[in-house]
Amino acid sequence: MEQREMNFFDLCVACGRAIGRGCAAMGRLLAHMTRRTYRYWWVVLPVVMLAAVAAFYYTRPTNRIYCANAVALLNGPSVQQFEQAYAPLRKKTLLDGATDFTTFRVVDCLGDETADFIDFRRKIKPTDTVNVLMQDRLCLQFRIKERDLRRLPAIEQGLTELLNADEAMQRSYAAYLANLREEVAFNHAQAHKLDSLTSTYYFYNATTAQPLAYNGNGVNFYGDRRIRLFLDELYEQRAHMQRSDYRLQLATAPVTLENHFALDAKPLNGRFKCMLLFFLMGWIAGCALAELMAQRKALNAWLKA
Fold first, then answer.
1. What is the pLDDT of residues 122-143, one digit of tens each?
2. Within a domain: residue 51?
3. pLDDT given at position 214
4. Whole-model pTM?
5. Bridge partners of 33?
6. Is position 102 within any domain?
7. Average pLDDT of the segment spanning 56-79
8. Based on the structure, what is the number of domains in the chain?
9. CB-hemisphere CA count at 13 Å for 262?
10. Residue 180 and residue 86: Cα distance in Å, rounded?
11. Rounded (10°) angle between helices 41-58 and 8-39
12. What single DSSP character describes residue 196?
C-alpha cells in the first residue's frame, strides 16, 4: 500500500479544512434548530420556561453553594500521609453540611518557606524548580451551602480532630516535635555564643578592649587590632531562631490551620451563569422534542415496519 507523506504545510491546510467543515456543520445545525424553534415555538417555549424555573429554584439564596478554603500546616506528617488520612472524606460526607472535600498544593516562588499562591488548576509539576511545591502546607477545600454556614466552625473543628486522630500522623508529629525542640535549643545556644563573642569578649574584656579609633565598612579598629563584628552572622542566626520559634509555637498538633476556613465570595451556582446554562439546556431539549414532533410520521412508520 502506497503511503503518502505530508509536510507541515499540508497538515495545516488539512486542519484548516477540517475546522472549516466543523464550523459549517455547526452553522447548519444552529440554522436547523432556529427553524424548529420558529415552527414549533409552542413546544420549545414551555421547555425553556421550565428550565428558567428550575434555574431560579437551584440558585435560590438558601441553596447557593460556596467553596471554603484554608491552608493546613503539616507538623511532621508528609503529604502522602495526609492524603491517606484525608481519603475517607473524599468518598462520603463525614461532616454534616460539607461535601466534595479536596486538596490543592501550595507553591513557594521565592524559596523563603512562605506560601505565595495555591495551585488550584493543578498545573505545577513536582520537577518545577521555580514554582516549588511546599511539603509542609496544603490547601483544604470543601463545598457548603449557604443554609449550612452556621455549622462552619463545627465542621472546621471536626475536620481537624478527625485528621489529628490518625496514628501514623501522630507518630510523625512526635518525631518532628522532638527534633524541632532540639533545633530551637541549638539555635538559642548559638545565638548566645555569637552575642557573647561580639559583646562580652570585645567590649568587656579588659585585656583586649581599647579606645575606638575608627569605624567603617563594618570593620572596627581598636588600637593596632582590626576586629570584624559578626553582625551579619548575628542577624542571620536570629532570623533562623525566630523561624524555628514560630514553627514550635504553631506545632500544637499534627495538622494545624494557618487561618480559619474562608468562603469564596462568588458562589458556584451563581444566578447569571446558571440561568444561561439552563436556558441553553432547555433550548436544546425543546429543539430535540420539536424534532421528534416533526419526524413523528417517519418514526411511527419505522416502529410499525
1. 888 888 888 889 999 999 999 9
2. no
3. 46
4. 0.73
5. none
6. yes
7. 91
8. 2
9. 9
10. 25
11. 100
12. I
Quote the CA–CA distance of 218 and 230 in Å, as a whole number: 9
All cell numbers assigned to 11: 497538515
What digits encode the pLDDT tens for the residues 81-100? Answer: 998 888 887 765 556 788 88
C-alpha cell at 246: 514560630
Grid cell locating 9: 504545510
Domain extent for 200: 178-250
- How confident is residue 4, by pLDDT bands cut at 50, 70 and 90? low
The reply to whether 124 and 193 lie within a common domain is: no
Could you tell me if 69 and 158 lie in one domain? yes
- Region label for 295, one of left (φ > 0), alpha (ψ between -120 and 50) or beta (otherwise): alpha
Residue 245 CA, distance from chain mean position: 27
3-class secondary-structure state, position 102:
strand
Q: Are residues 242 and 258 in the same domain?
A: no
What are the cell numbers at 236? 542571620
Domain co-membership, 243 together with 259: no
**CB-facing half-sphere around the CA of 97: CA atoms within 13 A:** 19
Would residue 299 count as lying in a domain? Answer: no
Same domain, 201 and 78: no
Q: 12 - beta bridge partners?
A: none
Domain boundary among 250, 272, 289: 250
Judgement on whether residues 259 and 121 belong to the same structural domain of the protein: yes
CATH of the domain at 158: 3.30.70
In this model, does residue 262 exceed pLDDT 60? yes
The grid cell for 222 is: 581598636
Mean pLDDT of 187-198: 74
Question: What's the chain's average pLDDT?
Answer: 83
* Spatial distance between the Cα atoms of 139 and 66, rounded to a whole number of angstroms: 16
Domain co-membership, 233 together with 183: yes
